[in-house]
Amino acid sequence: MAENDITSRMKQLGVNEADLEETFARSSGPGGQNVNKVSTAVTLRHLPSGISVTVQDSRSQAVNRKLARERLLDAIESAREGQRMAEIAKCEKERRRKSPRPAALKRKILESKRRRAELKKQRTKIKLD
């Protein structure tokens, strides 16, 4: 993915470079002396949402910075999609709650209530003489 693709995605999502906090640390894993001496691991945090990603895939800090931006944008997209799906589910639940009951179900419920009332009427108090 080219650099201009990342910037266009950032514009599309409304993410500004000023909203990102970037920190560097020493990586672990393969890479030899380079990862022991150079801070190649990149942690990128989107301040407004609090979403954070850490990348230490490559020996190169520049590659890790690019990958971190891509993964952060993916995480922001998925979080927004999750929020959108939750909102849709909430609206659907409210719609189902407000929708009227079918006539057949209403009749069935009323009949059940009548039967229950008859059963309760048959109970009489025991008179002690």
Number of helices: 4
Low-confidence stretches: none
Number of strands: 3
How are the strands of the largest sheet arranged?
A: 1-2-3
Give the SSE order as H and E letters: HEHEEHH
Ends distance: 94 Å
Radius of gyration: 31 Å
Give the averaged pLDDT, no decimals: 89
Overall geometric form:
elongated
As a percent range, the share of strand residues is: 5-15%
By helix and strand content, what is the structural category? alpha+beta
Helix content: 55-70%
Question: What's the quick description here?
Answer:
The chain contains four helices and three strands.
Please give the structural blueprint.
Layout: H1 3-13, E1 20-25, H2 33-37, E2 41-46, E3 51-55, H3 61-98, H4 103-121
Antiparallel strand pairs: 1-2, 2-3
Helix pairs in contact: 1-3
Structure characterization notes:
With 129 residues, the protein is α+β, with helices and mostly antiparallel strands. The protein is built from 4 helices and 3 strands. The chain has a 3-stranded antiparallel β-sheet with strand order 1-2-3, with helices on one face. The longest helix is centred in the middle third of the chain and has 38 residues, at 61-98. The protein is elongated, with a radius of gyration of 31 Å. It starts with a helix and ends in an 8-residue tail after the last helix.
Name a few traits of the molecule:
single chain, 129 residues, alpha+beta, 3-stranded antiparallel beta sheet, 4 helices, 3 strands, 57% helix
